[in-house]
Amino acid sequence: MTTSRYLPLGALAAGLLVLPWLLPNSFYLDLAIRMAINAIIVLGLNLLIGFAGQISLGHAGFLGLGAYASAVLPTHFGWPPLAAMLAGMALTGVLAALVARPIFRLKGHYLAMATLGLGIILNIVVRNEAQWTGGPDGMPVLPFEVAGLTLSRDWHWWWLVSALLLLSVWMAQNLMDSPFGRALRALHGSEVASRGVGVDVAGYKVAIFVLSAMFASLMGSITAHYVGFVTPNVADFFHSIELVTMVVIGGMASVYGSLLGAVLLTALPQLLATFEGWETVVFGAILMLCMIFLPKGLAPTLAARFGKGGQ
Fold this sequence. Notes:
Number of strands: 4
Shape: globular
Helix content: over 70%
Subcellular location: Cell membrane
Membrane topology: Multi-pass membrane protein
Main location: membrane
Transmembrane segments: 6-23, 35-57, 77-98, 110-126, 157-176, 206-227, 247-268, 280-298
Strand order of the largest sheet: 1-4
Number of helices: 14
Radius of gyration: 19 Å
Pfam family, one: BPD_transp_2
Oligomer: single chain
Largest sheet: 2 strands, antiparallel
């Protein structure tokens, strides 16, 4: 990664550092924390959709796995929160690896339907296993405590998610500059040509799917502990579509587009609250106009306008 590539990351770090001091009250800090959480999830999803060209319409299911691992294991089995979080990531990674090869033999809308079905199955499981998950009503999540330190204030969560966001952006940029990232771009362009030059197409698809799923599981756990409560809505179909929409609006195959899409679509429902009864209509109209006039997403379009790369 060249020096010029570090400048946006440095600007992001500076912005995250000063932002809490500029916010007028705790409501806006809470909103900023949710933006950062969504940005990390969407960044992981964009690695799969934007860079590798593989669709996932059930990604919220992996988010739910992480959230419920952090709720169920400490509550029912007395696990430490950090161990439960890591176990949720491991379980999610194993599940993603098991289903990835059969799923990614499919293409186009068949692949989309398969990932949708996976997400629906995971959502049904957490709804039906009421004795463990609380069913449709959900369940409380114990506070996150590590080495005697409990994250109990919004400031604590802000510094944690800010550090995770910076780390995620740095990892994603370096990953895309690596041979692994170039292989992902190649199979996105043409799987046939990629195979012709020796790229293990199936292996790379599985690897990026597992990585993206574990991103989601981690942030599902973070969200569960931050909110203090988890319901099956975290893993439902509409949440998956919301995440994909953030990827598309921000800009596919754009690291900073992921952040921009997450920030805008997390804030937009709050901004539209004044349109009583018409929020969904206005929201849909804004998305439609973005897709018509900014088909490549906000970040790539703005980057092209000002003569810079979309990363």
